[in-house]
Amino acid sequence: MKKFVLITGASGGIGQATALKLAAKGYNLYLHYNQNEEAIKTVMEKLREFGGEFIPLKGDLAEEDGYKTIATQIFSLHAIVHCSGNSHYGLFVDLDQKTLERLMRIHVSGPMLLIKELLPKLLSRRSGSIVLISSIWGQTGAACEVAYSAAKGAQLSFVKALSKEVASSGIRVNAIAPGAVNTAMLDQFTSGEINQLHQEIPLGRLGFPEEIADSVFFLVSEESSYITGQVLAVNGGWYI
User: Fold this and answer.
1) Fewer CB near the last or first residue (10 Å), C or N of the chain?
2) Are 182 and 12 in contact (CB under 8 A)?
3) Number of domains in the chain
């Protein structure tokens, strides 16, 4: 039986790596993106060698009904991997309402509503896995990323609560909390700041998107069949 996984934010660094990992393991994929169509085309080209079904979906989770646009394009479904997101860096006192509301829709209300819309597809099978890519800052918080930390913390609370609600239906819900990962999200920092990060991280380096993708595969697969409601920290020992 073909297994289909929805990856939101499949055009980003972690999303792309996750798509390649899951395709290599035999999964068929819905590849959600919002603006970066060129990145999705590149991923689709790389996925050809795996011979599965790979379906691009365009939708904006920041829009009020953006989740519905995505959900209506999905039919068979076995797992959801939420990678969509963006960061916001700056003093909390300077944060404007519009930016805060958009951040919360992208990271909190959008994915929650999307999962709610798609949950009946998993409930009907009485099996499935949901994985949210959160952040180290959802665990410990970061100065100058207060709103982002709050949104990522909300994701972790959502995972813990939903996991209890759907466990009896055979659905597992977990989160991954990456530390500093070598993706475009770090482009705003200087080389000196990146070097400082290396010194702060016990393993002495940034993470790679592929390492997050490996963790996603573990939590989606039956190799983690007795794990639910957990936050897997993939951060090189930066926060324990």
Assistant:
1) N
2) no
3) 1
Check which CATH number belongs to the domain holding 59 and give it.
Answer: 3.40.50.720
Is pLDDT of 150 > 90?
yes
Q: Which residue has 């989770």 as its token pair?
A: 61
pLDDT digits (tens, 9 = 90+) for 151-192: 999 999 999 999 999 999 999 999 999 999 988 777 778 889
Q: Domain span at residue 195?
A: 4-234
Task: Count the neighbouring beta carbons within 10 Å of the beta carbon of residue 18.
Answer: 31
Which helix (H) or strand (E) covers residue 186, if one does?
none
Half-sphere exposure of 89 (CA within 13 A, CB side): 5
User: For residue 5, what is the DSSP state?
Assistant: E
pLDDT in tens, 63-114: 999 999 999 999 999 999 999 988 888 999 999 999 999 999 999 999 999 9
Which is nearest to 100 in space by CA: 115, 113, 88, 110? 88
Catalytic status, residue 89 = no
Q: Tokens in use for 22?
A: 């899951």
- Other CB atoms within 10 Å distance of the CB of residue 15: 31
Domain presence at residue 105: yes
Predicted pLDDT of residue 88: 86
Residue with tokens 């380096």: 205
pLDDT 10s digits, 52-64: 999 999 999 999 9
For residues 220-224, average pLDDT: 97
Q: Which helix (H) or strand (E) holds 94?
A: none
Q: What is the pLDDT of residue 70?
A: 96
Given the residues 30, 33, 67, 148, select the one marked as catalytic.
148
